[in-house]
Design a protein that fits this description.
201 residues; alpha/beta
Length: 201
């Protein structure tokens, strides 16, 4: 189904313009990233530094630019691109399969928006607005720190509210070099997201 826009004087409906399509796709990227719990945790905990929310917005813009420069990218290519950004900018290694799911969703939305089908994007926007009115996203997380000759320390955090939900895509800020040691994101049998920093040297 193709969305159309009314003609200036009414009557015949006009097909969406290229600008309409690109704007909807950019919005769909930002909305899809807002559903990625790994990224939400990274922003909530400022793992990308004080500008973590701005980095998330830049992240969406970087994906949009990738489709402009490489229109025929596939799920695997986009997944690797996103994993690299999460590693470099948020100091996070992800190995729970979520990046592939987000990548596949973005690829699917790209195909729909190119066809002028904005129904799914509009539904996502409605759900996002409803979520914000209810207080934002809530993510379960468990921090497990491993130190030599010490017992493991668990950090559990239920109902973390996501107060940052901008879908605007700003220019990339000047970013500091990320630390070399990367935490690892996993999901345990109880559905908790585990963040396991590597041993300090």
């Amino acid at each position: 189904m193709t969305d159309s826009v009314p003609a200036p004087q009414g009557g015949v409906l006009l097909p969406p313009t290229k600008e309409d399509i690109e704007a909807k796709f950019d919005l769909s990227i930002a909305l899809t990233l807002s559903t990625w719990h790994a990224l939400t945790l990274a922003v909530q905990n400022s793992w990308g530094g004080p500008d973590s929310a701005e980095k998330r917005d830049w992240f969406a813009g970087a994906i949009s630019e990738l489709f402009v420069s490489t229109p025929d990218i596939d799920v695997e290519y986009l997944e690797e691109f996103m994993l690299n950004i999460m590693n470099d900018e948020f100091d996070l290694n992800i190995d729970d399969g979520s990046a592939e799911e987000i990548s596949a969703k973005i690829i699917g939305l790209r195909k729909l928006t190119l066809q002028g089908d904005f129904k799914l994007v509009n539904e996502m926007m409605t759900k996002w607005e409803e979520k914000k009115r209810k207080g934002g996203d809530k993510v379960k997380a468990k921090m497990v720190e491993r130190e030599d000759d010490e017992d493991d320390t668990d950090w559990d955090s239920d109902n973390i509210e996501d107060d940052d939900g901008d879908v605007e895509m700003d220019e990339a800020p000047q970013l500091a070099k990320a630390p070399k040691e990367k935490p690892i994101l996993e999901v345990d049998e109880d559905g908790f997201t585990k963040v396991i920093p590597k041993k300090k040297r």
